[in-house]
Amino acid sequence: MKNKTGLLILHITGCIAFLSLPVLLSPDVSWDFHFIKLPPFQEDFVSYTLLLLFFYLNYFLLVPRLYFKQKFLFYIFCIVASYVAIALLPHLIVPGNHGGPRSAFQAAVRAAAPLNSEDIEMQLRGIDSNTSEGQTRGTPPAGFRDPQALNKDSAELIPAQGHTTHPGPPPSVDRGPGFSSKKPRFENLFQFMMVLVLSAMIRINNRLKQIEKEKVNAELSYLKAQINPHFLFNTLNSIYSSAIDENADNTAAAVVKLSGMMRYVISESHHQYVPLEKELSYVSDYIELQKIRLGETVHLDYTVSGNPARKQIAPLILISFIENAFKHGVNPEEDSSIDIEITIDGDMLHMSVLNNKVNTVNGHASKNNVGLENTVGRLKLLYPSKHELVIKEDEKEYMVLLKINLQ
């Protein structure tokens, strides 16, 4: 609960800090908050709000549902579409009148083309000709713009005497914070890329932590399931019985297999992936120990086909389904049957586990499905869109069909 509250506070603080950036970076910021009425600030604020929304869209939806499932083309398309929307929407959302408190002056500046020396000379000549026709010499002709009448902002646009100008459109005018271009805003690519990378990295990092946590839980679960006193007692009791019957071969084989299983769980299970041959060897040792323990009371059929060489698999990902069959499908007083088949076809692994339902001797075992639940969760994390798990159950049988792409 404390972790969730702390995470919520962190997200709220981060959102407030991010939305404060357009205020802190605005060149027109003032204590009277008049700048919030300026269209450039409004566009910046809308842009940052959309970037924040995209952060959570990418974090909660695009990365887990597209990137993790390797739908890369659709993911890239969504990213490009999001960027275009963020570039266009601020201009469309902010009202069309982009004028501000200085718009009247800027309109006058835009209406007054810059005067060069030739224009001034021609207008002065017009004064002389008009004066000779009877006008008052001190009255300028209609349309004459006295450069001295312009304020210092517009007067800076008049070239100095002797400066040669080139024909063409007038030079661009700095429109100031009261004007916003009608073109879409594509200059925020850097901010967009930063938000994209940050949200993806945080999500991927959280997923890696979740995988590690699930793996640790699975290891603990299997350690409890495979090396618990009950399992050890039954196995050692079987070994003792073999020793009493002077069946040295079974005794030695059981000790070796039990030792190999314990070594595998302790030394190999902490790796993210292990050779498929080692995983199958662990499964085989487990089944052989169960055969020694159960004897002829269970009809057990176990087959492996295909070439497991040079293939990797997540450790302890198969055993829980097999262990579940022994928990729920074994009763010496009933007809117990377990069929296990593992096939490697190229990069695909197929496993089917079928057992008939019986009244189990250990009633508490039916309630202990922690290992099975952990394995289902690990499959979703480690093999997203690369596995198929089908569980069929009726009154008499329980069947598991698992397909994993090992590539």
What is the strand and helix layout of this fold?
Elements: H1 2-19, H2 21-24, H3 39-67, H4 72-93, H5 103-111, H6 117-132, H7 152-155, H8 189-226, H9 229-244, H10 248-267, E1 274-275, H11 276-294, E2 298-305, E3 312-313, H12 319-328, E4 336-345, E5 348-356, H13 370-382, E6 387-393, E7 397-405
Parallel strand pairs: 2-4
Antiparallel strand pairs: 1-3, 4-5, 5-7, 6-7
Helix pairs in contact: 3-4, 3-8, 8-13, 9-10, 9-11, 10-11
What does this structure look like?
This protein is an alpha+beta fold and 407 residues long. It folds into two domains: 2-100 and 181-202, no CATH class; 227-405, 2-Layer Sandwich (Heat Shock Protein 90). Helix content is 54%, strand content 12%. The protein has 13 helices and seven strands. The strands form two sheets. The protein has a five-stranded mixed sheet, covered by helices on one side. A hairpin with a 2-residue loop joins strand 4 and strand 5 (348-356). Helix 3 runs antiparallel to helix 4, helix 9 packs antiparallel against helix 10 (248-267) and helix 10 (248-267) crosses helix 11. The radius of gyration is 39 Å and the shape is elongated. It starts with a helix and ends with a strand. The model is unreliable at 97-113, 129-137, 149-166, 168-182 and 363-368 (pLDDT under 50).
